[in-house]
Design a protein that fits this description.
Oligomer: single chain
Distance between the termini: 25 Å
Order of helices and strands: HHHEEHEHEHEHEEH
Shape: globular
CATH class: Alpha Beta
Number of domains: 1
Length: about 240
């Protein structure tokens, strides 16, 4: 029953979002950027809150005080489930964009909505396009719009992590922004572990203390990528749900 209710809600909300597209196009061409961002933020908050609710996600947030309140940041998270995105939008509670796979741009309604959230599409197989995406994402952070990246590049669908893609934290280096490690624990149990059907589950999200941006020329041992990877791996063990 949870799965059916969730599907009905999600399809209905996607149709509603499609009806708002003319407003977004108008703001993009003529309206102030702040108004556009407020509208997207309001819709995203409502959507994420209800996805968490209708999926049966019993959500626990740890380290909420570590979310930067006065500046944009690069949030770096592990990736277990499709539902990680709405969960993080709900937890972080600020205007957010994502570094998203280019394939998502072609998905009806969803692709356009990702674009309106000021997310960045990336093709990791194309080095030049990847560099452009990194530069674009860093500019958004400089423009006070936080970005979330999943360095694994795709869902692990389990409690384990995939290797991080190289250069994942270049965005923060270019933007000179804080790097906030985020650990999502057991979100795959909501969907991926159930033969692609929504089932209620307990999920924890751990927000760790922000790291200063990696500076060029620093020793490899101080690489933020290694620090973030270790932090997330430690949290997956420490906060695992039995």
């Amino acid at each position: 029953m949870t799965h059916i209710i969730f599907v009905i809600f999600f399809v209905s909300y996607m149709l509603f979002i499609a009806l708002t597209f003319p407003i977004h196009y108008y703001y993009e061409k003529k309206g102030p950027k702040d108004k556009k961002r407020k509208l997207v933020y309001k819709i995203n908050r409502s959507l994420s809150k209800n996805i968490v609710r209708f999926s049966g996600c019993d959500l626990e947030i740890i380290g909420e005080e570590n979310i930067p309140k006065d500046q944009a940041a690069l949030y770096v998270s592990n990736h277990q489930s499709y539902l990680d995105i709405p969960i993080l939008v709900h937890v972080l509670d600020q205007p957010l964009g994502f570094v998203a796979k280019k394939e998502l741009a072609k998905v009806p309604i969803i692709g356009k909505w990702i674009y309106f959230t000021e997310s960045v599409f990336i093709d990791r197989k194309d080095i030049r396009q990847s560099l452009r995406a990194i530069n674009e994402a860093s500019k958004k952070i400089k423009d006070r719009h936080s970005i979330v990246i999943f360095p694994e590049g795709t869902r692990s669908k389990t409690s384990k992590m995939n290797p991080f893609k190289p250069g994942s934290l270049k965005i923060a280096e270019k933007a000179k922004s804080l790097v906030v490690p985020v650990t999502v624990v057991d979100s795959y149990k909501l969907y991926e572990a159930n033969n692609s059907r929504i089932r209620p589950a307990k999920v924890r999200v751990v927000i760790s203390k922000p790291l200063p941006p990696q500076e060029k020329g620093q020793e490899k041992s101080s690489d933020n990528t290694v620090k973030v990877l270790n932090t997330i791996q430690e949290n997956l063990q420490k906060y695992r749900i039995s």
